[in-house]
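WARN retry 2 of 3 for item q-0093 after timeout on previous attempt; input resubmitted unchanged.
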Amino acid sequence: MTTITSLTDVRAARRGERDTATLVAAAAEGEAQAWRELIDRYTVLVRCVCRSHRLTDADADDVAQLTWLRAMKEITEFDCLAGDLSEQVLAHLRQHLPDAATAADNQS
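OK item q-0093 returned
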């Protein structure tokens, strides 16, 4: 069986960091450092998507916070073999973007 490693995990391995599956397992057990590492690892992705929807920094921060809260609630259900964590993060992000984008447009 071939194992597919995400580019994120390849880069993490080069830096001597834990892979995503290990971080997810540690975060699911309540390890705060694992959460910090996951958030640090995927913050650029979240911010880029928010900015592509023309959200203000404050609105982007709100959407990011909601995204991570949702991910925290569902982390124990995440299966690293079934998909990349970025897919789950993006799915949560997409749920919160329409409301934030509409609110931002109304304030313009």
